[in-house]
């Protein structure tokens, strides 16, 4: 691999081998076979599981079936997070394939959004792109696009068409050369639930200034699963006022210092994007251009280092 | 006569006896499928279908006649499989029979397929092999599946011959694994036929015969005086004449024609699973031919049996192969005449690597080394970490699970839009059309696509289409306030009539161009920066194009035709570009600014995928356009813009005008007694006309992989062309400044292509063109049109010591020079191309100028002494073009002047350099003739 373009392809064509198992409590007419699928990391669960639904509908009483939802080791999986983020956050460092439990009953209203149709996913996806472009270009690029251009982005994702998507997405990735990057980097930092607990605990020991950087969203710390924003999102520029290029390390130091190893201390957390751990000196602008999800956000997962 | 072999069964494969089958006419060819299909071709051009063939009655019951696919042109060949029938007609068209099934062996109708073939054959599970009439390469029908029996597209198979083995082991092994073998044992036999070769007892064997008629080969030595040492060359001539006769319209005598090659069938083949290397036969009776390469011949001779004197003709085939060691190599490309894949079982899902060309792999390598050497930032630790971890992730998460079902099914992606099209019929004008690009994944995962243009022709809806992998270049043409671009295919380059389209806005045009460009590059597997060998060219609009040369671009005697070269655009705006084979590329803008290539690609409107990211810079260029306002004096109104009927236009271009050197008055007017004349800057009583010049400065700003080399403005530049194997640390680079000074750049290397400083080289007068050859021979053209040779240039003395004056050809003023390995070519102001005679190492100035051609605008001579020009007045079938890229054919070490021109892309081209291409044409490796796609019909 010699070119940055290959990174875009690798990111796009990342797949997670997944085994879908029907929840034991579902009433079936005969035993349900597991269903194996390669899920695109950059897509959404409810967008790519029509086959799963069809498969399990064959064995359950369809009139009993309510909306399908997914759960991994007791955690309901939010369809509106990219699949890769869900996997990195909850299941990285586990044995593949990823075993997801499929439910057709007892929809966890408090944890999950309903997803009655693909158009809901499209609306969510497009609003993410618009939000990101507001950060990157004051919405100028996305507003200059026509309806059909928006459609092209969505269809590209829905049909797994890399070229179709990037033919349009490249416009969202442009910036004036003299600026050296976007206005702000659209990013979201997710914390493992266990980690959230530790972070809250550690709050007592970190300087007040650092607390301020994420106390703007304290709800996320107190009740991560119930909040609509259980992630950290702030305005952060790719280049410092002095003209220094900001790195991934700079970002974490600013908005989530807990994720960084203490001086001399052991590494406690992994900073994972698309299943890999970029070095902390990686320029943030480059990350944003190459490792963002199709929704234009850089989704960063901070998870504890596996104990073994 | 058709005979049926009785009594063939498992334990008695040879059968028991022949039984005649009655016929309604005279059969010239027959094809029996693995199932129950039997079709034959009649002399009159119709086809016969055997009905009632079944397990109980393998002989069938009766014949049914089926008309030839095309009413005026008879069928010449038929090939059947389990469920398919393919036929060829005399005009080499390919036909697929619709509606064939076990209940209906006759089918229901013919479908005309793309491509022109002279021979077609169907394998065990309906896979198709064919030989193209155009290039005589072996083609495989890709995409044949049980649901799509007609397949998708023709793909050339790269087939080296026996003698090539030792030189191309990679492709040889891939062919072996694919089950294609060259008939090791060639035996003269009188009754070879398709039917017989299908009898092959071994699966996975297919036979190929090169087109070598016994007549021509036997004749060759006798026609030629015995003392002539180069028999192979004679053979190649007979090939050529044979080729020509092949392409002639159907001949008078039926017996000689259908297709000419079939006649030569006495060279039948027996499938043979011997080591293919063992298959070269050496004629024991002809010592003259044995001296080609005895050593190799003996190694290869193991196990060869020549069983009759008849084989003398065949042996010449073998000799001919070996003789390719000869540097003046005869034919370097096999021209196939027959293919039999009757025993070839190709699974429709299997990945075939018959098509892999060395071209592609070497390209990838050079691409990689390029991006690594050029931008050290690429190798930053964090980037390397990401690359490595991503491939680890692929291994971890995907490698063991590739058998899992994909969540999203692949489908075709279509992008549509509306545009205007410069229609193909008179009166020519722009008409509204719908435009669509359909993209899909090819069978091997490569992208491919088709362009469609939907238009109305007198109320009737029609469309024309072009295959993306057939497109050779996309040229933006901004004029008449139209945002238009031209799409060329080889066919349209020949016609000088591209598909011209115009988008509503410039942005829309650029979107389409960027998308189409990526699509074209994808379909050809081209990505990343240009290779070091790339040819660069510039249009008269300053747009820059680059083309990756195929190894056979300079092959003799069959180089890749010029019109098949694929050109892609590189961002930036230049007037001149020069390169050499270690990847140093310099450019000069219209404003004389010097630029050096950063090793990137894209820029301009190529953003995102079509462009590199970290070595693209802003580039600006400017150009002045002048127009003259002319006035005539009359007694009533004084000077007005009302001229005499014989006068020039009152606004004229600069034609016939001189510089405003005679001065001007305060309003810029120059005066004279009449047009045309010498002008002066103040009005006198005798002045009846006056003129003034309006200048308009155009400036454009774009981006591209170019960095400025300040501060001196240049008018010409040249870089030492290096031979492939020689590595030089410091590369000599010479230039001419805007003022005519000769400059020598110091410190130019692959790591610092921009060099460090200029060294001034003194001259008696200003110079305008300069070129340095592979042996550091520097030639230059002075402003007065004469040439100069610089003596004693070497690595120690990079600027040489003195100029030797060389007079120009009689009455001509030279304007440009290019020096290759040894050849020196110049172009004069009247468009004549001159070759310098008598240049020797001891007398590098040469003796005289020899006229080569006229209508030449510019010349570029490369490190192989290959000669490329920009020519004016090239006639195409649809129009004349000026500014066309042309390639000199027949250039050889002993014949550096070549013989004729091959015409490539144009018109509208202004500059070309081929000085990067030092790839010696494959001496004995099979030229990758098949790397080019078959032509699609241009509707």
UniProtKB/TrEMBL annotation, chain A:
InterPro entries linked to this entry: Atg5 (IPR007239), ATG5_HBR (IPR048940), Atg5_HR (IPR042526), ATG5_UblA (IPR048939), Atg5_UblA_dom_sf (IPR042527), ATG5_UblB (IPR048318)
Topology in membrane: Peripheral membrane protein
Gene Ontology CC terms: Atg12-Atg5-Atg16 complex; autophagosome; mitochondria-associated endoplasmic reticulum membrane contact site; phagophore; phagophore assembly site membrane
Keywords carried by this UniProt record: Acetylation, Apoptosis, Autophagy, Cytoplasm, Immunity, Isopeptide bond, Membrane, Ubl conjugation
Domain named Autophagy protein ATG5 UblA: residues: 11-104
Principal localisation: cytoplasm
Keyword Transferase set for record: no
Gene Ontology MF terms: Atg8-family ligase activity
Domain Autophagy protein ATG5 UblB: 185-302
Subcellular location: Cytoplasm; Preautophagosomal structure membrane
Subunit: Conjugated with ATG12. Forms a conjugate with ATG12. Part of the minor complex composed of 4 sets of ATG12-ATG5 and ATG16L1 (400 kDa); this complex interacts with ATG3 leading to disruption of ATG7 interaction and promotion of ATG8-like proteins lipidation. Forms an 800-kDa complex composed of ATG12-ATG5 and ATG16L2. The ATG12-ATG5 conjugate interacts with RAB33A; this interaction is bridged by ATG16L1 and promotes ATG12-ATG5-ATG16L1 complex recruitment to phagophores. Interacts with TECPR1; the interaction is direct and does not take place when ATG16L1 is associated with the ATG5-ATG12 conjugate.
UniProt protein name: Autophagy protein 5
Species of provenance: Dissostichus eleginoides (Patagonian toothfish)
UniProtKB/TrEMBL annotation, chain B:
Cross-referenced SMART domains: DysFC, DysFN, PH, TECPR
GO terms, molecular function: phosphatidylinositol-3-phosphate binding
Transcription as UniProt keyword: no
One annotated GO biological process: autophagosome maturation
Biased composition (Basic and acidic residues): 244-257
Chain ranges of the Peroxin/Ferlin domain: 620-672, 668-701
Localization (cell): Cytoplasmic vesicle, Autophagosome membrane; Lysosome membrane
A GO CC annotation given for this chain: autophagosome membrane
Keyword entries, A-Z: Autophagy, Cytoplasmic vesicle, Lipid-binding, Lysosome, Membrane, Repeat
Stretches assigned to the PH domain: 413-523
Keyword Lipid biosynthesis: no
Region span, Disordered: 192-261
UniProt-listed PANTHER family: DYSFERLIN-RELATED, TECTONIN BETA-PROPELLER REPEAT-CONTAINING PROTEIN 1 ISOFORM X1
Family label: Belongs to the TECPR1 family.
Protein's UniProt name: Tectonin beta-propeller repeat-containing protein 1
Lineage: Eukaryota, Metazoa, Chordata, Craniata, Vertebrata
């Amino acid at each position: 691999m010699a070119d940055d373009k290959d990174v875009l392809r690798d990111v796009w064509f990342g797949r997670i081998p997944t085994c879908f198992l029907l929840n034991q409590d579902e009433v079936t007419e005969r035993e349900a076979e597991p269903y194996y699928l390669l899920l695109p990391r950059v897509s959404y669960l409810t967008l790519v599981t029509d086959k799963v639904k069809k498969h399990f509908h064959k064995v359950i009483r369809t009139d009993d079936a309510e909306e399908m939802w997914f759960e991994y080791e007791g955690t309901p999986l939010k369809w509106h997070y990219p699949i890769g983020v869900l996997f990195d956050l909850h299941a990285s460092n586990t044995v593949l394939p990823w075993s997801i439990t499929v439910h057709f009953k007892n929809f966890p209203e408090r944890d999950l959004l309903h997803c009655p149709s693909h158009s809901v996913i499209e609306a969510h996806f497009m609003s993410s792109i618009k939000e990101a472009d507001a950060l990157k270009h004051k919405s100028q690029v996305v507003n200059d696009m026509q309806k059909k251009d928006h459609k092209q982005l969505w269809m590209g994702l829905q049909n797994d068409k890399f070229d179709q998507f990037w033919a349009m997405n490249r416009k969202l990735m442009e910036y004036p050369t003299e600026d050296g990057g976007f206005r702000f980097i659209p990013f979201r930092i997710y914390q493992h639930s266990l980690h959230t607990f530790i972070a809250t605990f550690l709050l007592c020991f970190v300087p007040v200034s650092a607390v301020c950087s994420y106390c703007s969203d304290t709800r996320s710390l107190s009740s991560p699963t119930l909040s609509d924003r259980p992630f950290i999102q702030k305005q952060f520029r790719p280049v410092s006022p002095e003209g220094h290029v900001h790195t991934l390390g700079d970002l974490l130091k600013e908005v989530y210092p807990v994720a960084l190893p203490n001086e001399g201390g052991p590494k406690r957390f992994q900073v994972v994007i698309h299943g890999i751990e970029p070095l902390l000196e990686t320029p943030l602008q480059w990350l944003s251009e190459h490792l963002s999800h199709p929704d234009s956000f850089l989704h960063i997962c901070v998870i504890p280092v596996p104990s073994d | 006569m058709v005979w049926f072999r009785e009594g063939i069964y498992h334990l008695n494969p040879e059968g028991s006896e022949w039984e005649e089958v009655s016929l309604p006419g005279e059969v010239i060819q027959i094809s029996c499928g693995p199932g129950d299909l039997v079709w034959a071709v009649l002399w009159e051009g119709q086809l016969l279908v055997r009905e009632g063939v079944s397990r109980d009655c393998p002989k069938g019951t009766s014949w049914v006649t089926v008309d030839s696919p095309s009413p005026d042109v008879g069928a010449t060949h038929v090939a059947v499989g389990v469920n398919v029938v393919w036929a060829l007609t005399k005009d080499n068209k390919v036909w697929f029979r619709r509606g064939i099934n076990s209940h209906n062996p006759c089918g229901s109708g013919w479908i005309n397929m793309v491509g022109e073939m002279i021979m077609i054959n169907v394998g065990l599970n309906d896979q198709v092999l064919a030989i193209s009439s155009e290039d005589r390469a072996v083609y495989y029908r890709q995409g044949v599946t049980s649901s799509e029996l007609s397949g998708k597209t023709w793909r050339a198979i790269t087939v080296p011959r026996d003698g090539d083995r030792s030189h191309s082991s990679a492709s040889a092994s891939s062919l072996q694994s694919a089950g294609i073998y060259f008939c090791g044992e060639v035996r003269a036999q009188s009754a070879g036929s398709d039917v017989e070769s299908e009898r092959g007892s071994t699966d996975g064997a297919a036979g190929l015969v090169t087109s070598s008629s016994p007549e021509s080969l036997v004749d060759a030595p006798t026609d030629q005086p015995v003392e002539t040492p180069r028999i192979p060359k004679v053979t190649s001539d007979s090939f050529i004449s044979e080729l020509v006769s092949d392409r002639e319209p159907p001949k008078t005598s039926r017996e000689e024609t259908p297709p000419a090659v079939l006649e030569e069938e006495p060279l039948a083949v027996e499938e043979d699973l011997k080591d293919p290397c063992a298959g070269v036969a050496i004629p024991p009776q002809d010592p003259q031919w044995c001296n080609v390469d005895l050593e190799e011949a003996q190694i290869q001779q193991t196990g060869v049996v020549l069983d009759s004197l008849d084989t003398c003709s065949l042996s010449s085939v073998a000799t001919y192969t070996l003789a390719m060691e000869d540097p003046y190599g005869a034919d370097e490309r096999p021209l196939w005449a027959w293919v039999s894949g009757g025993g070839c079982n190709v699974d429709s899902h299997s990945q075939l690597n018959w098509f892999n060309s060395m071209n592609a792999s070497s390209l990838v390598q050079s691409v990689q080394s390029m991006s690594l050497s050029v931008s050290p930032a690429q190798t930053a630790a964090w980037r390397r970490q990401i690359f490595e971890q991503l491939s680890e992730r692929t291994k971890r998460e995907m490698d063991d699970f590739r058998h899992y079902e994909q969540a999203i099914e692949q489908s075709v992606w279509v992008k549509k839009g509306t545009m205007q099209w410069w229609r193909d019929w008179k009166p020519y004008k722009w008409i509204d059309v719908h435009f669509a690009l359909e993209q899909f994944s090819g069978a091997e995962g490569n992208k491919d696509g088709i362009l469609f243009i939907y238009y109305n022709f007198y109320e009737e809806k029609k469309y024309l289409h072009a295959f993306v992998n057939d497109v050779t270049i996309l040229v933006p043409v901004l004029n008449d306030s139209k945002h238009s671009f031209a799409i060329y295919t080889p066919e349209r380059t020949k016609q000088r009539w591209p598909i011209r389209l115009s988008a509503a806005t410039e942005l829309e045009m650029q979107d389409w161009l960027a998308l189409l460009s990526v699509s074209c590059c994808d379909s050809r597997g081209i990505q990343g920066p240009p290779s070091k060998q790339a040819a660069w060219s510039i249009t008269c609009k300053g747009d820059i194009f680059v083309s990756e040369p195929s190894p056979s671009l300079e092959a003799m005697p069959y180089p890749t035709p010029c019109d098949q070269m694929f050109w892609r655009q590189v961002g930036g705006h230049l007037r001149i570009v020069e390169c050499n084979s270690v990847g140093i590329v310099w450019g000069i803008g219209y404003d004389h600014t010097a630029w050096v290539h950063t090793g990137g690609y894209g820029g301009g409107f190529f953003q995102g995928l079509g462009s590199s990211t970290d070595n693209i810079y802003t580039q600006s260029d400017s150009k002045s356009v002048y127009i003259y306002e002319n006035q005539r004096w009359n007694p009533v109104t004084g000077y007005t813009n009302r001229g005499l009927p014989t006068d020039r236009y009152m606004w004229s271009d600069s034609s016939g005008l001189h510089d405003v050197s005679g001065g001007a008055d305060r309003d810029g007017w120059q005066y004279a007694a009449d047009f045309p004349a010498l002008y002066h800057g103040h009005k006198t009583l005798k002045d009846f006309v006056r003129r003034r010049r309006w200048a308009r400065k155009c400036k454009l700003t774009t981006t591209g992989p170019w960095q400025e080399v300040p501060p001196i403005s240049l008018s010409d530049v040249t870089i030492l062309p290096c031979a492939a194997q020689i590595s030089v640390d410091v590369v000599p680079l010479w230039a001419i400044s805007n003022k005519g000074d000769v400059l020598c750049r110091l410190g130019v290397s692959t790591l610092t292509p921009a060099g460090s400083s200029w060294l001034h080289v003194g001259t008696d007068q200003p110079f305008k063109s300069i070129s340095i050859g592979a042996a550091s021979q520097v030639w230059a053209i002075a402003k007065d049109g004469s040439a100069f040779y610089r003596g004693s240039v070497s690595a120690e003395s990079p600027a040489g010591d003195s100029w030797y004056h060389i007079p120009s050809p009689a009455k001509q003023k030279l304007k440009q020079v290019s020096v290759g390995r040894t050849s020196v070519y110049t172009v004069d102001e009247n468009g004549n191309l001159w070759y310098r005679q008598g240049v020797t190492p001891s007398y590098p100035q040469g003796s005289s100028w020899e006229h080569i051609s006229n209508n030449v605008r510019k010349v570029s001579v490369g490190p192989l002494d290959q000669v490329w020009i920009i020519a004016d007045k090239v006639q195409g079938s649809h129009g004349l073009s000026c500014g066309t890229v042309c390639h000199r054919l027949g250039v050889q070490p002993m014949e550096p002047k070549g013989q004729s021109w091959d015409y490539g892309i144009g018109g509208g081209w202004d500059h070309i350099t081929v000085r990067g291409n030092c790839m010696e044409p494959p001496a004995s490796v099979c030229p990758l003739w098949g790397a080019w796609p078959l032509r699609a019909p241009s509707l």
